[in-house]
Amino acid sequence: MYAADVTSRFGDLTAEAGSPPIPLHDLRHGAATLALTAGVDLKVVQEMLGHSSSVLTRDTYTSVVPNWHEKL
Fold first, then answer.
1. Which of 15, 16, 38, 41 has a Cα at 20 to 30 A from 52?
2. What is the CA radius of gyration of the chain?
3. C-beta separation of 21 from 11 below 8 A
4. Is the pLDDT of residue 58 over 90?
């Protein structure tokens, strides 16, 4: 199965469920945000996302998750 197939199928499923259109990539951001909010270590989230460095993860999500660093 190709990425376009997964994206298309996800769109079909959300439409069938009566949900508003949700870009599949938003689920990735949502998962990372929830993980950081729950106190998951930044390095773990970095590896989960496949980022090359934790700096990228930190820079991307520090504005989304206020006070995430206080949970460390």
1. 38
2. 15
3. yes
4. no
Q: Where are the alpha helices (DSSP H) in the chain?
A: 3-16, 24-37, 42-49, 54-61
How far, in Å, CA of 58 to CA of 54, rounded?
6
pLDDT at 32 > cutoff 60: yes
CB neighbourhood size of 56 (10 A): 12
Measured at the CA of 39, the angle between CA 69 and CA 35, to 5 degrees, comes to: 110
State yes or no: pLDDT of 59 exceeds 70.
Answer: yes
As to burial, measured by CB atoms within 10 angstroms (0-12 exposed, 13-18 middle, 19+ buried), residue 36 is buried
Average pLDDT, the chain: 86
